[in-house]
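Hi R.,

Here's the chain you asked about this morning:
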Amino acid sequence: MNKIRKGDEVVVIGGRDKGRRGTVSKVLPDRVVVENINMIKRHTKPNPQKNNPGGIVQREASIHISNVMLWNALANKGDRIGFKVLGDGRKVRFFKSNNEVVDR
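And the predicted structure, written out as tokens:
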């Protein structure tokens, strides 16, 4: 079970985009892709078979998962995540600072 999942709001804690927030759009092993964070320019060749004109395309690159923290809206900061099992047997994530459950 991953601490960060697709759709989570995260804050970047390291690198050139430090302090920026965004939503996780893709989770890879040890890496995440966050919307509008870590933008790179990709030079693509034209491909008439795929109707691709080519040129310089901007897209998101992945960030190592250690450089992002889950955003805690109640504390208004990035927060560490822990796991606990509820009384009904569900395993859920919770914020370490205020014990608020992330998963509903």
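The chain is about 0% helix and 45% strand.

Let me know if you need anything else.
M.
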